[in-house]
Amino acid sequence: MPNEAIPSVVAMLVCDQVIIEQGTGKKSLIGVFERVNAFSFPTQTRLAIYAKLVDASGHYKFRIRLVNLKDESVLAELQAEANIDQGSVGEFAINIAGIVLPTAGKYEFQLYANEVYLHRVTMTAAAMPGGLQWPQQQQK
Amino acid sequence: MATATAEIAPVVSAERLRSGTTLADVDNKREPFVVDPSDISVGKDERREAKILVKFTQSPPSVTVTTVAEIPSARPDTILFGALTNPELRLRRPIPLMVSEEAGHVVLTWAETDEFSCGSSMGEALDDFSKAVSELFVELNGADVKLGEDLERVRHIMNEYIERRKQR
To answer: Under CATH, domain A8-130 is a member of which superfamily?
Structure first.
């Protein structure tokens, strides 16, 4: 286990998109949500992950896992490396396109740093009741 | 009139995930990088990896995205815990936990102290462990607390892993 300090996660959010302002580096989180509605499953969606860390110092290998809580299987995994200076705040922002959710139910993003579990955030995928049909699917 | 510009944080997708593909030039183009990964297709033993840029405040790191054919379990046999939610406490080092399943529930055990927690998923069990271990640490380190031999041993071990956050 590396000797890096264990970061504390002060925020971890799922949203539609993260936009980073050039120059200032400020992040705008667009469409924060915790529920995905779909007409049918499997469904494909696009989302973004934002995390803010304190108490981090040193070199970290971050890992984000998307887990299906139905059977606790890993659907996707992202890895990132970063150096964070002592006393500063680390921010993590990434957009993910094409996440496939196989069934309705609960899902979870888990954040690890240097193989140490740090935080999780859950979201629910739900089927829209009596969902609208696409025009080509409507019965005449 | 001042103008503001913005860029979209990098978008990770699978369509361009070819082994060894490096997308490090994306940031230089300053264009939104959006890829539709609708045709994810991975062979049974094949792993695809690609490096992309992601925005950090400290340094420009690389990100590796891996898609795997066989879906792995998110429930390992052991896990290093680093998720104390009590803002007054922080971890000196990660707590090693054993993960097991009993009667359909996930059980996490800290073998050194015989502390355990459970939940319907590993995430819930981790949340439960965070709450339980924080409360126990505060209780054992309270003022005027007299402990027996066993609890004194537990407090000694806990203090090797957990400390109070310094007031700023």
So the answer is: Macroglobulin (MG2) domain (2.60.40.1930)
